[in-house]
Write a structure and sequence with these properties.
CATH class of the largest domain: Alpha Beta
Number of helices: 19
Radius of gyration: 25 Å
Shape: globular
Largest sheet: 6 strands, mixed
CATH architecture of the largest domain: 3-Layer(aba) Sandwich
CATH superfamily of the largest domain: Glucose-6-phosphate isomerase like protein, domain 1
Number of strands: 11
Order of helices and strands: HHHEEHHHEHEHEHEHEHHHEHEHEHEHHH
Helix content: 40-55%
Length: 520
């Protein structure tokens, strides 16, 4: 089986979608609902604890049929099979894309099974205070040092599962900004802090700089021999990790078939494992696996990730919307949007297709958003009355964890009302001023989940993972490389040499002037 590489614009479905778009683009959602009492039921999906209402989208049954035909013509089913079977679908790096294998407990690779066992034992020892610092005191704080996927994923999940956290205080250092490091260290005790350095190559500049600063801070009181009690690593570079002073038994592996932004399911999630306990971490994985099975086996019309991806393509490529807002109505998900920004925009921000041709259509969507109800008092003005068409994903949980039912009722009332307001606007109402006019007809999905559990969080993350995969397949791009992050990092080396008055190659004159101005 070969991974498909079909230009979507050349398919019959694309041409039919364009003709269909020209025919329906000016029709309104208000009319769709007025003409169809069963629309909310027909344009919705239920799966386990998830209910997806996509009825408030500017689509008809014909739209969805043609979008599904597009998925068939670009051979989406073959692409899904290729990913799950371990084919090297990341062809520019000649790698498989197997993050789903990290959570398939019936078919776990041997090395994954061994690593999960090691994570279980390690986190248990830290949580139950068996693991001691160099002065014999138990660990009170865990600090994850990483960047990109080695930070955003575990940080987001740890925050999202705060309700399930134990006594350990967990911190995340990512930015190479020294103020960020020092502000974190201010509250820490060397005798009771454990550091987890996460870097696949153990050469990432930001992570190694932060790790070295932290190591020097620790050695102001501890010794080289004490490092093994306070530092562990997740990496493939055993030599450099050991040179840092970390004992071999305190190194957790990574694999090249797991991309960084999809690595929270691996040992990269060790900090989360410490924060919420291994059993909850395993439930997270199991929830994601259940979504994997749904994605792999459900027909396109009943498949949540596929439906959400195709709707996104409809707006991005036909309405030319370009951006999507994601608004979780849960403060626990305050870091979900930044996580998705990396997952989606680093994956699908590509302008060359799988045939090495420059694309002549829009690819990656711009992802932004924040938590409701905070967002309502910020950017919702733009969503309701701005000149841009911006589809919105509302995410809400039916039940509150702390059983604050009055608060939850207000939260859900706002979530549901906002999607209705985007839909209907003030059409049909007597408005005494054009400034108070809302046109409505603005699309949204509402994803209602029973409760924020580790299983449901895992399924939610996997849902968006599979959504971006489908988008990449349809757009005929490679979603699992990230060459776009390399150029700036490469140029930064010469810039750093100049900032530190070392010899360097000739820099761009604008860069040279910035360096000059920075030396106050």
């Amino acid at each position: 089986m070969s991974f498909p590489s079909i230009n979507p614009v050349n398919t019959q479905a694309w041409a039919m979608l364009q003709a269909h778009f020209d025919a329906v683009k000016d029709q309104s959602l208000q009319t769709y609902f007025a003409e169809d009492d069963s629309r909310a039921a027909r344009f919705s999906l239920e799966w386990n604890d998830f209910y997806l209402d996509y009825s408030k989208n500017r689509v008809t049954s014909k739209t969805m049929h043609l979008l599904q035909q597009l998925a068939e013509e670009v051979r989406l089913k073959d692409a899904i099979e290729a990913q799950f079977s371990g084919e090297h679908i990341n062809q520019t790096e000649d790698r498989a894309v197997r993050h789903t294998a990290l959570r398939d407990f019936e078919n776990l690779p041997k090395e994954v099974k061994q690593t999960l066992k090691k994570m279980r034992v390690f986190s248990k020892n830290v949580i139950d205070k068996s693991w001691k610092g160099y002065t014999g005191k138990p660990i009170t704080d865990v600090v994850n040092i990483g960047i990109g996927g080695s930070d955003l994923g575990p940080d987001m999940v740890t925050e999202a599962l705060s309700y399930y956290k134990n006594h350990l205080r967990v911190h995340y250092i990512s930015n190479v900004d020294g103020d960020h490091v020092q502000e974190t260290l201010k509250s820490l005790n060397r005798e009771t802090t454990l550091f987890i350095i996460v870097s696949k190559t153990f050469t990432t500049q930001e992570t190694l700089t932060n790790a070295s600063t932290v190591r020097n801070w620790f050695l102001q009181q501890g010794t080289i021999l004490d490092i093994e009690s306070h530092f562990v690593a997740v990496s493939t570079n055993l030599k450099e990790v050991q040179n840092f002073g970390i004992a071999p038994e305190n190194i957790f592996p990574m694999w090249d078939w797991v991309g960084g932004r999809f690595s929270l399911w691996s040992a990269v999630g060790l900090s989360t494992c410490c924060a919420v306990g291994y059993s909850n971490f395993e439930k997270l994985l199991q929830g994601a696996h259940q979504m994997d099975l749904h994605f792999k086996n459900a027909a396109f019309q009943d498949n949540m990730p596929v439906v959400m991806a195709l709707l996104s393509i409809w707006y991005n490529n036909f309405y030319q919307s370009e951006s999507e807002a994601i608004v979780p109505y849960s403060q626990y998900l305050s870091k979900f949007v930044p996580y998705l920004q990396q997952a989606i925009m680093e994956s699908n921000g590509k302008q060359v297709d799988r045939n090495q041709n420059t694309v002549n259509y829009q690819t990656g969507t711009i992802i932004w958003g924040s938590t409701g109800t905070n967002a309502q008092h910020a950017f919702f003005q733009l969503l309701h009355q701005g000149t841009k068409l911006i589809p919105v994903d509302f995410i809400a949980f039916a039940k509150a964890l702390h059983k604050q039912d009055h608060h939850q009722d207000i939260l859900l009332a706002n979530c549901f009302a906002q999607s209705e307001a985007l839909l209907n606007g003030t059409i049909g109402e007597q408005i005494d001023s054009p400034f108070r006019h809302f046109s409505g007809n603005r699309p949204s999905n509402t994803l209602l989940i029973k409760q924020l559990t580790p299983q449901n969080l895992g399924a939610l993350i996997a849902l968006y993972e599979h959504k971006l995969f489908v988008q990449g397949v349809v757009w005929n791009i490679y979603s699992y490389d990230q060459w776009g992050v390399e150029l700036g990092k490469k140029l930064a080396k010469g810039t750093l040499d100049s900032l530190q008055d070392k010899e360097s190659n000739k820099l761009h004159p604008a860069t040279e002037r910035l360096i000059h101005k920075s030396k106050y």
